[in-house]
Predict the structure.
Amino acid sequence: MSDVTLKAINLSRLFGENQVVADVSFNLKRGEVLGFLGPNGAGKSTTMRMLTGNLAPSAGEIKICGIDIIEDPKKAKALLGYLPEIRPLYKEFTVDEFLTIAARFHKVPSSKIKKSVEIVKDRCGLADMSKRLIENLSNGFQQRVGIAQAIIHNPEIVILDEPTVGLDPNQIRAIRKLIKEIGSKYSVIISTHILSEVEMICDRVQFIKQGKLVYQGTIKELKEQRSEKLLVGLSKAPTLAQLKKIKGVDKVEKDENGMFVFQFKEKYLPAEEIVDLSAKEGWGLYHITRFTTSLEEFFVELTKSNN
Amino acid sequence: MIINVARKELKSFFASPMGWIILSVLMGALGFLYLEGVNNYFAVMSGAIRPAERVGVTIHVGEIVYRDASFLMLIAVPMLSMRLISEERRGQTLPFLISAPISLTEIVLGKFLGLVIYLGILVFYIFVMLSTLNFWADIDFGYLIGNSLGLFLLIASFSALGIYFSSLTNQPIIAAILCFITLFALMKLGQYFASDPNHWFGYISFTNHFQSFSRGVLDSSDIIYFILFIVTFLTLTIRRLDSDRLRG
């Protein structure tokens, strides 16, 4: 059996005239956490709803472990766990009752239901909440119940739509840890617009914008997109052309504070040359630091460049 | 799977006070009707001088109870059915059911079954209550069974219509009002066309079809009417949920 658990082929979705998802194709491998990034309204949730059979695609195919979700939805859905953006919790039930129902609906054999409820409660840190009504749980615990119902039947693929929105920093941390744990066993797709989150928990990312995939890559590749730069302050600066001639320098720009931003060739730090030259030519060097551009800048550029 | 969905619905009925209150109020009301029927049986029958005017205790009490039970259900069913789907829409819990390996047909049938089982408790309760007459009289069980079946089919039809209206909106109250108005029209308007037995409205209204059951007659055309009514509205509900998936 191949390692690919989920395959989306040329997915498109129209709402009336409005194309929300256009020609999206990607694969998901076993044991991989895929981050699904994009600005609000880019089509993340729509894609996830299609992947889980909640919405029919206008065109394209979805294969869950080789099973087409449109042709054989029951079999395909049995391999999926899904937590939508708005938690689908029946708040009138207790945690135990709700998880039992979730297990039953996902065809966990009745002899194993009790045990799988216990296991999933343990994993999601809900052991002390068994008899509490979901309604009375805090936001973070409700989110954990939401994740618990998505993984109770040991699905091959877990799809989580913005699982950390609206939680406090401690809860976010706990949920991220949980997602990482889940990711080591199953394939996970999580959507988010928090970039640091992606860096922490994902193996691979894809960026969707206006319904189109504009970037796909591993987290390592993504990190390489960040470049190191030098920020230099000169009181009696020469022309930009002169600065560009310095050995190893790729590009020089003046920022809004009158400082110079040097981009340099890979693995060649021209700091020494700049300092030497400045002393020789009397440019009046008063500041020099090395910094790394953030992922955020990369994504801002990515969205801009495609506009 | 249908059973599992039905179990969830039943659990949900009894997880809120609403489910218990409606059940107990209806039982109380039906008990009161029964008591009144028994109380005035002798008073009415002693006034009936000609033998032809005399009816048995089963028919006398049963008529009161079953006629009014169908009317009570007219109010109770919309209150119970309104939340079945519209509440899920409002709470955005439908994805939980739809992303589970359950088909839409199973979801709708499960919800229908859950409601019918809940209301079936009342049908059974009425049957048992009226059967207690057997302690001091010789009652006509055929009449009771016929009426129970009629009431059950009537309730099931109400429920199917209620689920359909519940699938149309995400406001339970609107679903309840629409359902009540439609049921009321189907129950009561038949009376206004009673003068013309062949009027088309007579055929589609509940009253005429329920009447034969309450006389103790099992007419296959009436049974088919109720079954067709149920199948139609359940199918419409499934179609409606499916169109959500297709149109978004």
